[in-house]
Amino acid sequence: MTAAPRQGSARWLKHLAGAGITVLCLVVFVRQVNVSDVLDALAHFHWAYLVLGVASLAVGYALRIVRWSMMLRAAGANVTFRDCCAPFLGSIALNNVLPLRLGDVVRALVFPRSMGITKTTATSSLIVERLVDLMTLLASLAIGLFAIRAIAIPEALKASAVSLAIAGGVVLALGFFFSGALARLFDRLADRAREQGAAKRAAVCDTLAGLLHGFNVMSRPRLLLSMLAVSMLVWVGEAGLFYFVLLGAGVEGSPLVALLVMAVATLSTLVPSSPGYVGPFHLAAFTAISLVGGTAAQAGSYAVIVHLALWLPTTLAGAVAIWARPELFRAAKSQAG
Fold first, then answer.
1. 182 within 8 A of 213, measured Cβ to Cβ
2. Under DSSP, is residue 45 helix (H, G, I), strand (E, B) or coil?
3. Burial of 89 (0-12, 13-18, 19+ CB in 10 A)
4. Rg of the chain over CA atoms, in angstroms?
5. Any idea what DSSP says for residue 293?
6. Are 291 and 303 in contact (CB under 8 A)?
7. What dihedral angle (degrees, nearest 10) is formed by the CA atoms of 211, 212, 213, 218?
8. How many CB atoms lie within 10 A of CB 234?
9. Is 336 helix (H, G, I), strand (E, B) or coil?
10. For residues 15 and 18, what is the distance between their CA atoms, to the nearest angstrom?
């Protein structure tokens, strides 16, 4: 009787923590800029560059869908790029408007029914996708910190960024290479639990074994190399948006600067916040642009524009995708009924 109230309290605490962090970041952000200067910088922004930036972002998202379809097909799913478009874009839009990345939960547990794939396969692919993206971002951060000599970054921070990227890569590699052995171990544990009549423990072991079998399939050398290559292009596309917004804001910067700003701003979305990553993203982007020599007005306008350029197109595209494919939710509802 007490489990549900406790879970509800924990959920509300997460929402309150996210709201508090958002407010704190926004207060710090607003106190560092002059609003009239930011508005003036927005008025002088070269909007033609934004069109190029959004086009680059679109290429990156198309490649994300290609990568996801590759993983699902490797796991035995009969899906095409077109089959994956609406579920992927819909989950991104839901992430943008719902707290706690609930769009990811929907992609893993709700959309698979309409796609004809298992929830375990969808969850495995989502975890692999997130891990690969995290390693790519950490590598981008390390490359940017070392390549841009104009930024006075303490050597200890540079070393930490490199260490995180290497450690993450090692953990990811070990997880992939030993996933098959771990999956077989959990299969045996599940069989033993069933023999002992421990149904719940057997179900947990079966779930973990299923996830690890998915990791094992998706870590085959040829597929893994293909995924890493596509992932690099994914983030080149996203960095293109950050670069073109740099040009539009009149900030002197190279593609390497855009890579660094993208890594800092995107990693900030890991911090709990309100839907749409409002607050932490703006403060991180503002800080990164200030570090590379932008004025407070440029940094403030940049943070506002790049966030809007990331949030609005993906939200609209996802909303249209969900509207065009109502069966995404209808199939899960009929299953529940």
1. no
2. coil
3. buried
4. 22
5. T
6. no
7. 90
8. 24
9. helix
10. 5
Q: Which residue has the higher pLDDT, 16 or 40?
A: 40
Asked if 249 and 41 touch (Cβ cutoff 8 Å), the reply is yes
Cα separation, 267 vs 50, whole angstroms: 22
Q: Which of 118, 92, 11, 56 is nearest to 277 (CA)?
A: 92
Q: Which residue has the tokens 């590598």?
A: 139
Question: Maximum Cα–Cα distance for the chain, whole Å?
Answer: 71
The answer to whether 239 touches 255, Cβ cutoff 8 Å, is yes
Tell me the C-alpha distance between 336 and 316, whole Å.
Answer: 28
Instruction: Report d(CA 85, CA 64) in Å as an integer.
Output: 10
* pLDDT of 120 higher than 80: yes
DSSP 8-state assignment for residue 101? T
For the cut 60, the answer to whether the pLDDT of residue 7 exceeds it is no
Distance between CA atoms of residues 285 and 300, nearest Å: 8
- Residue (of 312, 308, 309, 300) closest to 42 by Cα position: 300
The sign of the dihedral angle between the CA atoms of 128, 143, 65, 51 is positive
Q: What pLDDT band is residue 301 in, cutting at 50, 70 and 90?
A: very high
Rounded-to-integer distance, Cα 161 and Cα 253, Å: 21
Contact yes or no for 161/143 (Cβ under 8 A): no
Cβ contact 241:57 at 8 Å: yes
Contact present, 280 and 271 (Cβ < 8 Å)? yes
Contact 281, 268 (CB under 8 A): yes
Answer whether 285's CB lies under 8 Å from 81's CB: no
Cβ neighbourhood burial of 21 (10 Å; 0-12, 13-18, 19+): middle
Question: What span, in angstroms and rounded, lies between the C-alpha atoms of 74 and 225?
Answer: 13
Task: Please give the model's pTM, rounded to 2 decimal places.
Answer: 0.87
